[in-house]
Amino acid sequence: xxxxxxxxxxxxxxxxxxxxxxxxxxxxxxxxxxxxxxxxxxxxxxxxxxxxxxxxxxxxxxxxxxxxxxxxxxxxxxxxxxxxxxxxxxxxxxxxxxxxxxxxxxxxxxxxxxxxxxxxxxx
Length: 123
Fold this sequence. Notes:
Blueprint: H1 2-10, E1 16-23, E2 36-42, H2 44-52, E3 56-58, H3 60-66, E4 73-76
Parallel strand pairs: 1-2, 1-4, 2-3
């Protein structure tokens, strides 16, 4: 949200930022532009900062009244690579690979592996 707020305020009529999730306060963001934000929930401090800057906090039923077709809205989402399963991607055991192993026993010497490099496998 912090990165997009600069982009959203540049236009003359900024679109409504839509977040399917919670909007929380970020102390790193010093200046908040006057944004119209639609979300499932707002934290108390985030709502105060948005409305204090001249913005507006909307719920999804209010958004349906303001923009029934979804025109002039901008849907924000998280990183696609932020999932836990992405950590397991890649070939395990290859030099430079940091693929997370699928083991139930996490800890010292729990995982029995043959080798760390292709050249020195069990034969």
